[in-house]
Amino acid sequence: DDDDDDDDDDENDEKDDSPDLFFGQTFYVHFLVFQACRPFRKGAKLYEKKPKFDREVVLHADNTLADLRDKIVCEFDFSKSLSSPQNLTCRERFPSSMFCINRRFYIDKRKPEYKDYSESVKEWGRVHGNHATQSETLRMENTTMKDLEVTLRKPCLFQHLGDCDHLVLVSKIVYGYPNDAKFSKDYPKIEKFQEPRTSGCFFCGIGVPTRIVTKSKRVILDPSEYCTDCFKGYFEIEGKLIEPNASYFQAADKTVII
């Protein structure tokens, strides 16, 4: 009897290891994800820097937008607010997120406390007479690649942390190649990514940034990063912050972002 049980276990292991994706029978969607948009002001005008590539994520037909969301990692996810009593990262404090693809909103409702970012966009649309009020809101965890209506290489939006925006787009849709992964558990996968680089302090350009400042009226870049000495010299007087309406965060160690 024990031998029979062992044989059954071996058969189950073989079934678990059997390929479930076959060449030509499913399709794969390649998403390009760009780093967070960094607007800066010059006078009364708001400008955007050219988007920088961050990573390419490949999903198969049955993957959901929530699977894609979990593969998007932002440098601001791991920052920590200097005013927060808990030692939580921004991603832990603000886990909600949203995609806007082809005039449809896709929100993350895997937990009831996650916010619906589309509500504020639709409210803005009602005030300004924008078509956003007529856009449909769907749940990203229920939306597979087979359900999506996309236009190749048309810019779409991923928003998280309240107001951190990323450009995303579908670069190609293919039926795969013979040497692609044959197991659905291997997807989504990161095909390529830009290795994180530590940028210099916004002021001195030499020091390693330890602080991130947003919503400041004293600098043109939002958000902007500073080393400890420059931050204390420009934003503090005798240890007290001189611009209380701005937001201040502890910068993340970019070497851990993959």
Q: Could you walk me through the main structural features you see in this protein, from its secondary elements to its overall organization?
A:
- This is snRNA-activating protein complex subunit 3.
- Belongs to the SNAPC3/SRD2 family.
- The chain is an alpha+beta fold and 258 residues long.
- The chain has two domains: 27-193, no CATH class; 198-257, no CATH class.
- The protein is built from five helices and 16 strands.
- It has an eight-stranded mixed sheet, with helices on one face. The chain has a four-stranded antiparallel sheet with strand order 5-16-12-13.
As a percent range, the share of strand residues is: 25-35%
Shape: globular
Q: Taking strands numbered 1, 2, ... along the chain, how are they ordered across the largest sheet?
A: 8-7-6-9-10-1-4-11
Taking the alpha carbons of the first and last residues, their distance comes to 49 Å
How would you classify the helix and strand content by structural class?
Answer: alpha+beta
Most strands sheet: 8 strands, mixed
What is the overall number of helices? 5
Provide the gyration radius in Å. Answer: 22 Å
Order of helices and strands: HEEEEHEHEEHEEEEEEHEEE
The residue-averaged pLDDT reads 83
Kindly state the percentage of residues in helix.
Answer: 10-25%
Query: Can you tell me the residue ranges where pLDDT is under 50 for at least 5 consecutive residues?
Result: 254-258
Estimate nothing, just give the exact number of structural domains: 2
Number of strands: 16
Subcellular location: Nucleus
Keywords: DNA-binding, Nucleus, Transcription, Transcription regulation
Family: Belongs to the SNAPC3/SRD2 family.
Protein name: snRNA-activating protein complex subunit 3
